[in-house]
Backbone:
């Protein structure tokens, strides 16, 4: 039996006390260390977290930088935007306030449903957009009734504005709200800030980083439950950078108007610098409509229009260049050793193997040298000469003059067509190049495809004798243009021939300019979009006026002026124009565009005389088209054709229109005989 003495009990108690004290001391040290860590080393972190819980940041959209022309005329700027938001935390009697707003602002049921959803998702201090782009009357009506509309916040902000409307639609693009995919990708809270819009197309999209600017911010103090306590200091936004283009805004607007009712495009280039002075694709969408939020009806109208207003034809349209390449081909022939004085007899047709290749002049032109072959646009001359030298001798010159070339411009999409040769065909189709391929390519048909910008570049290089690089951004450095691989004498022959096209009895006499002391040099062109059979030739080729729109020939035109000292060059392509209306055809359009560059008053006076016959300018025609489209949509559908033959006719007509697209694909290009211009 163990005896427990008083001494042993005292010892045991002391030992336990020491252990317990050590443990307590250790815990105290840990707590003290943790408190020191939190108060010293983590102080900033928790201070920021506490501040974040107490203060919330609301972003305000930055003003976008302006897009201006070479003379600082605004092409895209910002206008005052009246809008109405709701601050959910301040909202009282929600249903009554929303009902009052619906009445004052004439909100649709769709608007009300969206607002309800946004209110459920928004934080208490985060504004919810009710409506934007308000007129002053409705904005004022809300402002005077604010005492009975707690939580409603009328705001003056900024919205994108395009003074020239559709005249610059494809040039600058448009802005719009960010998509859900963009927000998921970037996680930038600015993208979901009411009133913020970013570039969606064209220059607005490609130069978004420069144009966007830095958002402003408004700090508000809130409770732990997110209730607003008071507003704190605000930080103003910083506007984006201005972007200056080489475009001449007045010329841009004039060209857009002068294209009239055509589906087409025109590009004007400064022959001394390579600066693009105008880049117009018509018809076009109004970027103001897209920025404000395009309606379903307007979108449907644009997407169903057979003139394709949603496509930038300057860069995305591909066309057989037709006879516009004959001056270039002539230059290539001389470089290949062809004597420009050698004559070829044009009888109206040339048989090659089992095929017959026709000239556009059925009875022929008789004997012609190079200059007169270009002036009269004789197909037989180029058939024969290119057959002799081979198209492989032509293709490098075509590329050197800009065809098939992609240029460094601020656009996301650019189609650059095809300059074919034997190597290209073997790689693409696993077939050898044929004589027929050379003949078709010699008059700008067959596999040859270009976009309108390339044609304008070709004209500028023929005019200047240098490989000019087109430039659109005024602040971008100019690239030095190397000399073309042609002699001055060869270039002089081509320019003289193009002068003769207009001024010495050639095919472009209608484009003769009326400005004293200024002459125009040009080349006309026609590109078929359908194959003409021998049976049709025997019975009589149908005129373009007798054909559906989509089966009519394209009309093309390249030019420069003054002919003796070129300053400006242009390329014009009109889809399915068919040369059916004289003052809407390429020669007179080219003439008037060049007239504007030398005598603006004369050009504007001429335009004002004919524009009313087209239904007004492009804004007036678009307004009339929208009204007609809405009326057609509201009208009852026409009765189905009762007669089977009539029904078949409708189907055949629809199929004919559907099978011919506005952009000619190389696989669909005619390989047989084709007409020139």
Residues:
């Amino acid at each position: 039996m163990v005896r427990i003495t008083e001494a042993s009990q005292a010892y045991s108690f002391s030992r336990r006390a020491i252990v317990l004290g050590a443990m307590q001391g250790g815990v105290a040290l840990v707590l003290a260390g943790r408190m020191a860590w939190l108060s010293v080393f983590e102080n900033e972190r928790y201070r920021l977290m506490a501040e974040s819980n107490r203060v919330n940041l609301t972003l305000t959209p930055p003003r976008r930088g302006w897009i201006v022309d070479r003379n600082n005329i605004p092409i895209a700027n910002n206008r005052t935007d009246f809008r109405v938001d709701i601050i959910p935390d301040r909202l009282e009697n929600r249903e009554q306030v929303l009902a009052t707003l619906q009445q004052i602002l004439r909100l649709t049921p769709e608007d009300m449903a969206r607002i309800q959803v946004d209110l459920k998702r928004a934080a208490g201090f985060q504004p919810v957009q009710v409506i934007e782009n308000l007129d002053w009357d409705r904005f004022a009506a809300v402002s005077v009734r604010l005492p009975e509309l707690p939580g409603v916040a009328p705001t003056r902000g900024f919205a994108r504005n395009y003074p020239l409307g559709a005249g610059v639609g494809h040039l600058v693009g448009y802005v719009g709200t960010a998509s859900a995919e963009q927000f998921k990708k970037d996680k930038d809270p600015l993208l979901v800030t009411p009133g913020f819009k970013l570039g969606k197309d064209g220059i607005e999209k490609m130069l978004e980083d420069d144009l966007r600017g830095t958002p402003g911010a408004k700090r508000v103090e809130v409770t732990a439950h997110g209730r607003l306590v008071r507003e704190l200091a605000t930080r103003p936004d910083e506007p984006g950078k201005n972007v200056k283009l080489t475009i001449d805004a007045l010329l841009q607007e004039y060209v857009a108007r002068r294209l009239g009712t055509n589906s087409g495009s025109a590009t004007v280039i400064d022959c001394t610098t390579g600066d693009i002075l105008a880049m117009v694709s018509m018809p076009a969408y109004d970027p103001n409509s897209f920025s404000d939020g395009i309606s379903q009806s307007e979108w449907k109208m644009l997407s169903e229009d057979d003139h394709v207003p949603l496509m930038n034809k300057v860069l995305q349209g591909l066309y057989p260049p037709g006879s516009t390449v004959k001056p270039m081909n002539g230059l290539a022939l001389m470089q290949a050793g062809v004597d420009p004085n050698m004559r070829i007899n044009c009888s109206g047709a040339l048989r090659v193997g089992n095929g017959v290749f026709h000239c556009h002049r059925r009875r022929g032109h008789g004997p012609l040298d190079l200059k007169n072959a270009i002036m009269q646009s004789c197909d037989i001359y180029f058939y024969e000469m290119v057959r002799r030298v081979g198209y492989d001798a032509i293709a490098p010159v075509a590329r050197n003059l800009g065809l098939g070339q992609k240029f460094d411009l601020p656009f996301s999409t650019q189609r650059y067509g095809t300059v074919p040769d034997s190597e290209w065909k073997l790689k693409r189709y696993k077939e050898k190049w044929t004589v027929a391929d050379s003949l078709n390519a010699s008059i700008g048909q067959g596999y040859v495809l270009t976009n309108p910008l390339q044609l304008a570049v070709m004209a500028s290089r023929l005019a200047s004798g240098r490989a000019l690089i087109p430039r659109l951004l005024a602040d971008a450095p100019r690239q030095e243009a190397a000399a073309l691989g042609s002699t001055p004498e060869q270039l002089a022959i081509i320019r003289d021939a193009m002068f003769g096209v207009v001024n010495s009895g050639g095919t472009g006499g209608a484009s003769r300019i009326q400005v004293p002391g200024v002459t125009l040099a040009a080349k006309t062109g026609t590109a078929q979009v359908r194959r003409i059979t021998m049976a049709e030739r025997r019975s009589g080729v149908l005129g373009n006026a007798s054909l559906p729109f989509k089966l009519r020939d394209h009309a093309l035109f390249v030019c420069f002026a003054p002919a003796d000292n070129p300053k400006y060059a242009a390329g014009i392509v009109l889809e399915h124009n068919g040369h059916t209306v004289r003052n809407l055809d390429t020669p007179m359009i080219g003439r008037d565009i060049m007239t504007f560059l030398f005598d603006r008053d004369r050009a504007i006076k001429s335009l004002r005389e004919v524009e009313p016959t087209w239904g007004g300018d492009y804004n007036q025609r678009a307004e009339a088209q929208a009204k007609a489209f809405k009326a057609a949509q509201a009208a009852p559908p026409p009765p189905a054709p009762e007669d089977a033959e009539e029904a078949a006719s409708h189907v055949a007509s629809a199929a004919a229109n559907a099978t011919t697209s506005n952009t000619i694909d190389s696989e669909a290009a005619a390989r047989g005989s084709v007409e020139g211009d």
